[in-house]
Amino acid sequence: MSTLLYALGRWSYRHPWRVLVGWLLLLGVALGLAAPNLTGTDNSFSIPGTEAQEGIELLARSFPQASGTSAQLVIVAADGDTVDVDPYASAIGETVSHLEDLDGVIAVTDPFNEMVTGLVSDDESAAIIRLQFDGQATDVSDETLTELEGVATDLHESLPGGSQVAMGGDLFSTSVPALSLIEAVGVLIALFVLIVTFRSFAVAWFPLVSALIGVGLAIALIFVATVFVSVSSTTPMLAIMLGLAVGIDYALFIVARHQDQVRDGVAPEESAARATGTAGSAVVFAGVTVLIALVGLSFAGIPFLTTMGIAAAVAVAIAVVVAITLTPALLGFSKGRVVGWGYGKKRRGVPLAARRASAEDTDASSVDERAGEPATTPTGHTAKKPNRWVMLVTKHPWVTSIAVVLTLGIMAIPAASLTLALPNAGVQPESSQARQAYDLTAEHFGPGANGPLIMTGTIVTSTDPLGLMADLADEIEQVPGVKQIALSTPNETADTGLIQIVPETGPDDPATAELVRALRDLAPQLEDEYGIDLKVTGFTAVGIDISDRLGAALVPFGVFVVGLSLVLLMIVFRSVWVPIKAALGYLLSVAASFGVVAAVFEWGWLADVLHVTRTGPVISFMPIILMGVLFGLAMDYQVFLVSRMREDYVHARRAAAGHPTRSDRDIAVGAVRSGFTASARVVSAAAIIMFAVFAAFVPEGDASIKPIALGLAVGIAVDAFLVRMTLVPAVMALLGDKAWWMPRWLERILPHFDIEGEAVERELALADWPEPDTTVAVVGEKVAVRADGGRAAGEVVLFEDAAFRVERGGTLIATGDPRAARAFALAVAGRLPTSDGRLRVAGHLLPERGAWVRAHVGVALLGEAEDRVQALRRALAGRATLVVIDGVDTLDAAERDQAAALLRDAADVLRERAGDLDAPTATLTLVVTARSESAALALLADAHRPDVTAIALQAGTLQTATTAEVTA
């Protein structure tokens, strides 16, 4: 990964205009496709497999006039007046007639209809006109919405002064989030932090440009997707928040690494490539963790939440790709003008490569206990005075750890009172007409009138549908929490019954959820008595079902996220305790952020300051989204901070090998301090930027976004500054060198992920090996391959300490134990990673360039092939200039003749195709393995291969190498 990113970074640096114009063209095309669909999002929530959804589907089939979305017009008479007399009664009657003529309206309920109860308040000071639409809220046209507003305005103007009219209901229960100038403040704060961090106006713009292009492309693609799938209106805003935050941070990590390297004397082009290969690898890993967590939102089994997670994951994926391509391209525009203020040439010091070369001989991580600072860092960077904070934390690790855990525990206390619900008009700004209608309805009809419930079922077997519905209404009205039965009626064909229930409490009140459960518990009893299977449904019931489903999904999702973090961090850090510590720290951050959200939105703390218009339950999917997003971002800080500590620890142990007076614990603590000092600046800047971006969506944000934004802002601040930059170094100091312990069996089975670009560093260090501008085809030095022989056998050495060299057009024979020979062949062909040593094949270093070698080196495994000649033919078919043949001694005489002919023909084809006999493609290089050297020599003699180098392998050792001359 890191070597590919290294090459990508260099190419992008060299071709900045191509990269920039390419992204701008892609953005332009996406915006063009998205323009016709900017209103394509919707707020229709469905949850397959729940009782509420089944009830909606039943109504859609047999009671369509009650299955669609609804709205209500609330009329409140002036003080002292009543709505049952003129001019109110006549105006309401005319309005009902007008509403019945609107497109999409399939039913209008007159509040004065004798068949209906509950639409006129007890004191007759208010009335409700209820409307039923064909389809869901997204099916109601803009023209109909405009006409509805016009009808409400006309009615208000026709009534006496002091009266109130407001349009609300399920149709207007959710609002479409929109950006405001406050969100721009977050971007400006991010720009200021970038200027301070980089000490440069020019460089500070790079992360912003990268993030804005990525966000623009992601949002455009989301709106294009609305043509094919249902996307909630909250999704684009969530994608903007995440895209901006991670886009800025990912580019920041790359630019910061580049700037440090240029300040250290590395050429700008080389530095951009290295930064993309090293910091870019960490960016890719961090982005993948966020992607996995967001896609994991599908655990809840709720379609709109799954879509939201995928859309946000797309935004993050685009941010990663833009960061690793556009960022080095932007650096290509700046060339060497990135060092910032106060970093002239005279301060750049010794080139980085020179310092790295001498780092092995320096006790790099040693901390002078008297001065409290290292002379140089273990990786050879310029010495930095240790950060005072990390010195304080690591000197008092127990006090620090206890203080942080207690603080976060106290912050988490309000989380116990956190309740969840879908958003409704009650959380909209007081200036909105839907909020006014909600408040007027609650004031004059009770809070339950804003969220009526529906019970429906098939009554086709009843001989007295009207009597049945009346009896059911009487039974249900006795349930605690039911205020009244507004309607109980069969449909026109008398095969489906509908009961509309007005609760005593509001739609987002926990008591209403208890009522829904009580009604569902009553349903079996009613079925036994009346023979009708009733289902509880309606907008409020759907919201309760979604909240319950999300609440039930939190534990398995949390297990998934924590388990994922443990596995990923074990792979990255090759440690057991570091991942456990990181996962526990993540849980503390989540609990604290939940606590702050509950304190603001449930308890009302700072509600006025944050413009929270109404306290109460928060949006149902806030916890699961916060857990998913915060997981990915927390892993970002963990990776960028602790990976530097591990890098310093590994180099320091190697450097301190000849200093027995220094303990491993001292080395480990010194690495914590030096690693923290080297990465704290960038991590702090990244956290401040993310906090600013998320916090900017709180004051004026949509009611659905506010709690998510606040939770993420608090979670980022807590996780970055209290957990990662305080608790982590304290616990690492307590653990000492045990922090990097891992059982050998676990070490063997876990894959390796090059998170800090070690492959790039190795390639740079071996760039001139075995000699500058080498023409050798295959060369190895102290090469070894080991395998896991199982728990009983442990690690098996297939071969080790192998040294060999083959020029282009030559042949290498490896003989001996079949397992060792097969491992040797696969290693040279890039199919099996080496355990030790250096190996370069066709100019490409292994295992870093294994992908290229696998694509260009032919392999014929004759020992396991049914048709050995055909296997060799396939290996030569791609006209590869290097072919590895394993098990040539398995060929019989006839097969050997055919194989020799194939080898001669392949060599002739290469020479004819190349034309230039000195070109690398003019010769065929072979690596063959066999049990005995004689069998291989016989084949090579027939194939006219005169230049042969032979090595004899045995399991676990390598015998002396010999050279044989074979004549045709």
From TrEMBL:
Keyword line: Cell membrane, Membrane, Transmembrane, Transmembrane helix
Subcellular location: Cell membrane
Membrane topology note: Multi-pass membrane protein
InterPro entries (UniProt xref): Acrflvin-R (IPR001036), MMPL_dom (IPR004869), Mycobact_MmpL (IPR050545), SSD (IPR000731)
Main location: membrane
Region (Disordered): 354-383
SSD domain: residues covered: 208-333
GO molecular function, one term: transmembrane transporter activity
Pfam families: MMPL
Transmembrane segments annotated in the record for this chain: 178-198, 205-231, 237-256, 277-302, 308-331, 398-422, 550-572, 584-606, 618-637, 678-698, 710-735
Coiled-coil region(s): none
One cellular component (GO) term of this entry: plasma membrane
Identification of the protein by name: MMPL family transporter
